[in-house]
Amino acid sequence: MCMIDDADERCTVLHEKQQRARKEHVCAECHRTIGKGEVYLNEGLLFEGKINTHKTCAHCLVVRSWISKECGGWIYGEIKEDFEEHARNPFYEETLNYLCSGIQRRWRCQHEQLLPVSERPMTTHEREKETLR
Questions:
Q1: Which of 2, 29, 54, 111 could form a disulfide with 43 if both were Cys (CB 3.0 to 4.6 A apart)?
Q2: Which string of DSSP letters, residue by residue, matches 62-99?
Q3: Which domain, by its residues, includes 26?
Q4: pLDDT at 63
């Protein structure tokens, strides 16, 4: 179920820096415009001999963090699809549905206002540990 399980190759992260946007950028995950003043993660990646820049909005970083902790990694540019697949599984809590809805709407409400950045939901591993206490 986790897309990372089928990944053949890994990329090399050359640099990563959390920045505040001085101009508009596009999130490589949800394809939303990252507005001036928003915080985003800027990464330089080496994959298959090519250097790429990958910019991820703060909202998608929450989703990426959940996928990373739940599945042990993620595939750049594929977190939306991977997360949607997890959210369709009845095994996962309803909190995933809220984030799934957010990423599908590019983190905007019906009035086009940007949604607040959510907390990362607990993974199944974290819930199991908490249950055992």
A1: 54
A2: HHHHHHHHHHS---TT-HHHHHHHHHHSTTS-THHHHH
A3: 12-121
A4: 97
